[in-house]
From TrEMBL:
Residues 2-205 form the ABC transporter domain. SMART domains: AAA. It comes from Alcaligenes ammonioxydans. Pfam families: ABC_tran. Keywords: ATP-binding, Cell membrane, Cytochrome c-type biogenesis, Membrane, Nucleotide-binding, Translocase, Transport. The keyword Electron transport does not apply. This is Cytochrome c biogenesis heme-transporting ATPase CcmA.
Length: 206
């Protein structure tokens, strides 16, 4: 499905990683670990086609991914450190505009069910600025649950989630893998789910 071949990344004068390869097939999950500054976010941004590697190649179903490759991007959901939501809009308004952007044709009952599963049904008309950090993260998870994209690239999405929120994310990932989606994620904590994952350790920050 996704293959990264011999990627190198420099930030400023620093070599963050080099000759890094990773392969992700349908139904597989990869956990990228490493200490602060080891390049986890840099790698995920390259895989999400938000940033460019200094060397190496990205292949999607064996097709080379180009710079700003909109065809490739339509196949993935990227969750970064900040949920990227509009603080002045309600939960529902945020979701509606994001799902439009994601080109998701949702059914009302699936939408309500996703809000319920994310613990946000009672907050649908509440502006984002009145939500906690964990609740904002859950808005992204609801969006993720309604998306129909095969590749999920999730950077530190456990941050701020309570145990119910972590359980919700674990269920979403398990269902996604069952449907032959693929997931690559980072976490500073051990994953709180029973999942078969491959590990990519970026080792010590250089
Ligand atoms: N905007 C930037 N300009 C220059 N260097 C940067 C920039 N952002 C990050 N870096 C450097 O790139 C390296 C990798 O950063 P990155 O955010 O990918 O690490 P990380 O493993 O995700 O860290 P963390 O665990 O703290 O989230 C770090 O050494 C950092 O100093």
């Amino acid at each position: 499905m996704l293959e990264a071949v011999s990627l190198s990344c420099r930030r400023g004068q620093r070599r963050v990683f080099s000759d890094l390869s990773v392969k992700l097939e349908a139904g597989q999950c990869c956990l990228v670990s490493g200490p602060n500054g080891s390049g986890k976010t840099s790698l995920l941004r390259i895989l999400a086609n938000i940033a460019q590697a200094d060397a190496g190649q990205l292949l999607w179903h064996e097709r080379p991914v180009q710079r700003n490759d909109s065809d490739y991007r339509r196949n993935l959901m990227y969750g970064g450190h900040a949920p990227g939501l509009n603080a002045n809009l309600s939960v529902q308004e945020n979701l509606d505009s994001l799902l439009l952007q994601d080109r998701v044709a949702w059914e009302r009952q699936d939408y309500d069910q996703a809000l319920r599963a994310g613990g946000l049904l009672a907050y649908r008309r509440v502006p984002l600025r009145q939500l906690s950090a964990g609740q904002r993260r859950r808005v992204f998870l609801v969006r993720l649950s309604l998306s129909n994209r095969p590749l999920w690239i999730l950077d530190e999405q456990l941050t701020a989630l309570d145990s119910a929120g972590q359980h919700f994310l674990g269920e979403l990932i398990a269902q996604h893998l069952q449907r032959q989606g693929a997931v690559i994620l980072t976490s500073h904590q051990a994953l709180p789910w029973k999942l078969d994952v491959q590990h990519l350790d970026l080792g010590s920050a250089c």
